[in-house]
Amino acid sequence: MNFPEIHHKRTLSVISVMIALGIVFWKFLTPTPIDYNAQVKPILNQKCISCHGGVKKKGGFSLLFREEALSPTESGHPAIVPGNSAKSEMIKRLHATDPEERMPYKEPPLTKEEIVILTQWIDEGAPFNLHWSYQPVQLPKVPTRSFFEWFSPQPTNEIDQFIDAQLSEKGLSRSEEASKSILLRRVSLDLIGIPAPDALASQFLSDPSENAYESLVDSLLRLPQFGERWTAIWMDLARYADTKGYERDYIRTIWRYRDWLIKAFNEDKPYDQFLIEQLAGDLLPDPSDEQFLATAFHRNTMTNDEGGTDNEEFRTAAVIDRVNTTWEALMGTSFACVQCHSHPYDPFRHEDYYRFMAYFNESRDEDTYDEYPLLREFQHRSRQQFDSLMTWLKTSTNKDAVDFYRRMVKTGRPCINSIANDSMSNAALEDTKFLRFRKNSLARFPSVDFTDKPLLLIRMRSGVAGGKLSVVLDQPNGKPIAQHFIPITKGEWDILTIPLNGYLSGKHDVYFTYTNPSLKNNNENGTLVDWLTPIPAFPSANNSTVYFTYFINLLNEPDALFTPIMEDNPAYMKRNTYVFERGNWLMKSKQVQAGVPAVLKNNQFKNMQSRLEMAMWMTDKQHPLVSRTMVNRLWEQLFGQGIVETLEDLGSQGMHPTHQGLLDFLSYRFMYDDDWSIKKTLKRMVMSATYRQSSVASQQALKEDPLNKLYAHAPRVRLTAEQIRDQALCITGKMSTKMYGPSVMPYQPDGIWASPYDGRSWKKSEGEDQYRRAIYTYWKRTGPYPSFISFDGTAREVCTARRIRTNTPLQALALLNDSAYWDLSVQWARQLLPAAGADVGQAIEKGYHRATGSNINVLKKQALVDLFSSSLQRISAEPERLKQLLSDSSNQPHAKQLAALAIVTNSILNLDEVITKN
Amino acid sequence: MNLIEFFGRLHPVMVHLPIGILLLALTLDGVEWKNPKFQSPLNIQFILWIGSGAAIFSVLSGYALSQNGDYPIDQLEQHKRLGYITSIFFLFYAAVRNWMVSKRIGHLTLTLCGILLLITTGHKGGSLTHGEGYLYALVEPNKDQKNSTATLTDEEVKSIEDAGWVIAPIAAGDGKLRIVGFNIEGSAQQALKQLSNFPDHIEELKLSYASITNADLQSIRSLTALKKIWLDHTRASDSCIALLLELEKLNYINLTSTSVTESGIIQLKQKKPRITIYPAL
Amino acid sequence: MSLETLIHEAHHTSLCYQTRRHFLHQCKTGMGAMALGAFLNGCGWSSTDGSSAEQPLRPKAPHFPGKVKSVIFLHMAGAPSQLEMFDFKPELAKMDGLPCPDSFLNGKKFAFIRGVPSLLGPQTQFNRYGESGTWLSDNLPEFRKVVDDVCLLKAVNTDQFNHAPAQLLMHCGTARLGRPSMGSWVTYGLGTENSNLPGFVVLTSGGRNPDAGKSVWGSGFLPSVYQGVQCRSEGDPVLFLKDPNGLNRDMRKASIETINRINEQSYEEYKDPEIIARIAQYEMAFKMQITVPEVMSIADEPAYIHEMYGTVPGQESFANNALLARKLVERGVRFVQLFDWGWDSHGTDPGTALDLGFIQKCRENDKAVTALLLDLKQRGMLEETLVVWGGEFGRTPMQENRDGKQNYHKGRDHHSDAFTMWMAGGGIKKGYSHGETDPIGYNAISGKVSVYDIQATILQQLGFHHEELTYPFQGRNFRLTDVFGNVIDEIIA
User: Fold this and answer.
1) What is the pLDDT of chain C when averaged over all its residues?
2) pLDDT tens per residue across span B138-184
3) Any domain includes C394
4) Same domain, C14 and C109
5) How far apart are CA C240 and CA A820, in angstroms?
6) Is the CB of residue C162 less than 8 Å away from at least one CB of chain A?
7) Do C366 and C229 reside in the same domain of the chain?
8) Contacts A–B by Cβ distance under 8 A
9) Contact A611, A295 (CB under 8 A)
10) CA of C135 vs chain A CAs: smallest distance (Å)
């Protein structure tokens, strides 16, 4: 340009000052925009929404959601025309003078100020500023390529278009595709948690075709290891553990649930179905064992066995945990804070918490020692008995009765646990677990329903003869409706069948009087009671007595797989749910009915009272949080951070999404196009060029976007605790492919398990069980597997929606020194040594390739060769170390080389490239 | 960067322009009031016009700055209003000044009001950036602030850490440091020398378990602010006593598990009876 | 590029890159930001370089100059009987054997007492000791020597009467799981002065872990670097600290150097700052392997020290742990938590009888605790260290009648309304008693303090306003003392 320089500068400065002034004045002059939440919502809520919102839509007009408010009313025109208050029927009606016309109908008119606010709000476009995450997912516009993006690598799907759009704003562009070997390792670790099987790997590497990658992805998704990898994630959410937690932390058998998860992921159970079964499988019609097992999701809450604790307190704690977990894990909302007060930022009220809690408050479990109700999966003999009982029942009685007996045998419901007794004399709740009768003792169970139930079953055990039990209704000294002598059970539980005197009806307080002349003093122990229940008369058809015996045997069958499950109270045992003042369970205030927060209400679901309806509401496509939460979680697993980094909170207190459009896009596709298929969604993500790019960061990207929020390169993410173990097992060739079954105990240092009253110890598993995938490792809450904890595993006491990755010296120590890893290093070295022949370099090349999937470069190889030589030298100088280093292998021919190579393989297992996804 | 934000950030610089200009005008005007014969070498009204213009500009930049919302609302609001009033007042002043000069009371009122406005607005602004009571802090020294020492720069921190020291700040904002030497490797002498660059900051020096000798310690002589020193489990011996005696502010010396003898400690105790010395005898 | 340069790069450039970046974010944006920002300002860190995220344990400035730099918390898990140690109740002796008045039982819940129990007089003699004339029982013959250095809190109150929840409340400020423990809060707030050692160390004795499990030293929602590291007096002091059998230090050094050499190259390739952090952590691991066993070994202590504490090297005992606590604090560990299991004196067996096992337990504890205080004092460490002693609750003035049956041995049930704890060290009044219970030791009649007050006071001594040491989680700022707690000004010197 040929402007004289001075001229040029002056013009520039004048222009810039004018622009600055202009902007400032423009800011000065424009009125402050209306704040929907602060100004408009209160008016609508107070004056309009009672007729125009939710259930009522007078005149076909609703103000609950924007799309409703803007859609045509019965008149055929919308009542609100955004940006034009003059044309908006709503505003006209506010000004109207005819009382039939004017709104609010038959109520005082709005004030001038209120009308001004609403008018201005409509002129400004009538925004409903609900936080984005509470709005149903809609398909956003996919950004098109801008001019500049033509220089960046080609996108392969819409994900890349979203990513590119934001990258180009910063002047960045996506990186080139990563090498095939890197990609192979990355996608295998991501999809199946371990390196791909050799056959798959070589097939991919040797396939030059365009769709080699896609067929690799498809193959990986079909592998059974896929389910194991994703189950690991879900176990954190479900707070899965093999113990009950709290002080005593006894064993819990719930691994059937873990196996259910693996199968569900492998068969790609649609996510909505996956959730419905876990939340309310027991309420589905004729639930299968598998559907019952799914509900163990919410039986992973802790149970307190400590003597003297209040079972109701810990039952309540478990219910609260279910609410918190449901919201945090499945709806990305930190609902827990509404427990004490209304949510300060998000539209959730204190009462909403307890309304929601009501869905879980009916479950039958009540912190009992045996964790009733339990699903019984019968084995062998009892399986046959069960089948024949069912066949017999079907021919002998009506469907309701068959259902009743099946349910009772399968889940032990209904029954009254001994902890339900509320008054006793010389009886005691032994260790707060079972009811203990002593000489001349009395115990009361309040309001037991006897309608049409002439039989009383009592599960008890007794070490002394001569006991007699009398059953009296309503008052301690009335006429007994039954009297029964109690046999000795020799320390085994038995079920007493006590016929009652005829048919009774209604609810009664039941008094049990126990007398036993053979007891010497008042303190001597008599009978111990676990549970009791009145039941209807058993069908009287052929062989009735045989099948009744089967029935009782099955109820008391020890040879079954027991898994804690959810099951609701029968109608006559309903609990009430109250708001807890300031979250204190002892300070019950208002009683509430089950319900969901208004802001998430879905008009298709009216008067939802059951857990099943709640589950249907959650998994409805209109629910804004469920799909977003899951898609965000899947993204985090692949990319190291969520699109909303706070997986546990998508609300206004969480972090802002980096790519909100993308999250919505993926959530929409997840529900509407992929029918909630996790595999399809994962495939969509891993097929993107964004996923496939190299993880090498350019200087520019480091400078412009140091946190890699925009994905100018693939993230490098340290593997999870589970992946680190599994990968080490895989590359050293020790991995057991056995699936399912009780948890196992691989090597663990002594002294990790130390809990009061617990004689149990960690018994190292035998054979291949030592080398099974991490998800099968026994998880004791008070003493979790130590090297998992070092790598940010969680204690599983409560749901953990997100593991925060740390980088600590304790991790280095675990990988360097944990005997489990040293053992693997030696075994691996033994495999590599023969390959080496004379040249250790070859063994190192092979080992490195095995661990990273890539070829070693000269410098790295030199470093490892140097380590080998220096180690060999040191070992040769002190050959007595060999025995310690190699234990049983110390006598083999190349023992020194083997030991030196083990130091090398141990170091390879520690390399950043090996414990990180490149 | 956002243009408005940039413009706003100029505010702290820009405000001084009208303050200076207007103060000059007010001073000249004051002199003229006192001594009507005084002939200002400068055109006071012109200066006032320029000053008011600058004041308006400051107000605009201030408004832009206020948009980022980092300031306490109440104080901000006060300062903002005062800013508007001040700039309008001075425009008015400039307009009527030459006419008003003839009326002594009016003239005085204008000048005094001007001074008052300028000071209050400026003070409110100062409080916003430096915290309330910033000005009075000088008048009545605040207990918390009287000892505060300038905080170290990143480079200074790095220089200390590079020498192997761990810096444990004693409390937020006072700049005083506790220096800990558990992780010192290599030459302790060099490391100690590094510390002598910060004589005002270092109040506590924990040399426990460091491998140091009396000779290494020589450079701590310059740490005049030092109040506490730990030499426990080091090779310090009696000959470091003279050195310790030089440190005026010391009130705690720990010589547990050193070669310092009982007589050395007695000597210390006699010279400095108020100091807490360990091992206690 | 030399290793040193790499490490510095770790300090200054990369840190904002962390995987802990959310932690960083929270520090910068939440209210926690202000707390952390304030720490950093203290020594010239600008709040933008993110150093704290790189080295979450680097020392940070408290709100005001703290009187102490470290805390030794001696937790008597199981809850010792205040009535046989500190709280002398001559009236209760007179009422021994009488049925407990209804007024004490109405509306009360007990762990094991059922029906109407009898009162149980003190099972030992009391006398006054020290210049302060403090009452102490014969079960504590050694403690007399230091009674003028401690401050007794005789009316501590909790609202939990089962072990696990009460221990959680004591250490984490809530009876539920999931919150950070006191030591985690302190290391989060202050960092550590010796990066070759963990900032927060836990030592257990009595053969069992505390009832509440590892949660009582867990980091809750704070990053896991702040959780307590359980050191063991048998086996590896820290898990996986020892090299595999047969590997010597040279071999380990060579292997760590090789790992780091290769990792440096990976950094050259990927420019991922996390690699630099990893290199630093491997160096640190190597240093810890040397430092920790050295500190955790008491074998080299002089005979008079062993005599004083009653320590036997190589055993797991409270005495050994007390000595280790001193050694750890001496090396800059910020928070040492000792759990001594075995104080649950129900009287269900001789081991838990107040006139048998309990006396033995007192003696062992007494000797080691007294030695610890004397040792800290003679080393000039008591001025900078706060020692806190106490159980999770106290014990009833009534003899336990489990399930309505009087226990055969003399024992007491759990009692939450009033019990005794003590503190000693920097800035705490010496030879002072705060609070008083009624004539039978059932309720506080003056100077009642809650568990939260104790926590607030501990933080105060370290230089924190307990209400301001916060961390944002689940949409709000959490703190150790929940929404409670007052500093016990009366006991501050």
Assistant:
1) 83
2) 554 444 444 567 778 888 888 888 888 999 999 888 888 999 988 78
3) yes
4) no
5) 10
6) yes
7) yes
8) 19
9) no
10) 33
In the 8-state DSSP scheme, what is residue A568? B
**C-alpha distance from A17 to closest chain B C-alpha (Å):** 9
C-beta atoms of A912 and C278 within 8 A: yes
User: How many whole angstroms separate alpha carbon A362 and alpha carbon A166?
Assistant: 48
Residue A266 exposed, middle or buried by CB count within 10 Å (0-12, 13-18, 19+)? buried
> Within an 8 Å CB–CB cutoff, is residue B82 touching chain C?
no
Are B87 and B56 spatial neighbours (Cβ–Cβ below 8 Å)? Answer: yes
Give me the residue spans of the domains in chain A.
1-30, 36-129, 230-372+573-618, 412-543, 819-917
- Which of C21, C274, C281 has the CB atom closest to A811's CB atom? C281
Q: Would you call C42 and B172 a contact, using CB atoms and an 8 Å cutoff?
A: yes
Furthest-apart CA atoms within chain A: distance in Å = 121
Closest CB to A706 among C17, C262, C403: C17
Amino acid at site A39: Q
Burial of A285 (0-12, 13-18, 19+ CB in 10 A): exposed
Query: Is CATH 2.40.160.10 the classification given to domain A412-543?
Result: no
List of E strands, A569-623: 577-580, 588-592
Alpha carbons C66 and A450: distance in angstroms, whole number:
68
**Any CB–CB contact under 8 A between B262 and chain C?**
no
Please state the domain count of chain C. 2
C-alpha span between A153 and B29 (Å, rounded): 70
Say whether pLDDT at C120 is over 70: yes
Determine the CATH number of domain B154-278. Answer: 3.80.10.10
ipTM of the complex in this document:
0.74
- Please check whether residue C234 touches A, CB under 8 A: yes
Average pLDDT over chain A reads 88
Amino acid at A94: L
In 3D space, the residue among C447, C284, C74 whose CA is nearest the CA of residue A808 turns out to be C284
Residues C409 and C458 in one domain: yes
B180 vs C194: CB contact, 8 Å cut-off?
Answer: yes
For A423, phi then psi, to 5°, come to -160, 135
User: In three state form, how does the secondary structure of chain C look?
Assistant: CCHHHHHHHHHHCHHHHCCCHHHHHHHHHCHHHHHHHHHHHCCCCCCCCCHHHHCCCCCCCCCCCCCCCEEEEEEEECCCCHHHCCCCCHHHHHCCCCECCHHHHCCCCCCCECCCCEECCCCCCEEEECCCCEEEECCCCCHHHHHHHEEEEEEEECCCCCHHHHHHHHHHCCCCCCCCCHHHHHHHHHCCCCCCCCCEEEEEECCCCCCCHHHHHCCCCCCHHHCCEECCCCCCCCCCCCCCCCCCHHHHHHHHHHHHHHHHHHHHHHCCHHHHHHHHHHHHHHHHHHHHHHHHCCCCCCHHHHHHHCCCCCCCCHHHHHHHHHHHHHCCCCEEEEEEECCCCCCCCHHHCCCCHHHHHHHHHHHHHHHHHHHHHHCCCCCCEEEEEECCCEEEEEECCECCCCCCCCCEEEECCCEEEEEEECCECCCEEECEECCCCCCEEECCEEHHHHHHHHHHHHCCCCCCCEEEECCEEEECCCCCCCCCHHHEC
Interchain pair B4, A24: CB under 8 A: yes
d(CA A526, nearest CA chain C) in Å: 14
**Among A54-58, A694-698, B78-82, C161-165, the least confident range:** A54-58
**pLDDT tens string A106-134:** 777 888 888 888 888 888 888 877 788 89
Q: DSSP letter at A83?
A: T
Q: Does B232 touch chain C (CB under 8 A)?
A: yes
Residue A394 has pLDDT above 80, yes or no: yes
Chain C residues whose CB is inside 8 A of the A749 CB are 235-236, 239-240
**How close does chain A come to C194, measured CA to CA in Å?**
14
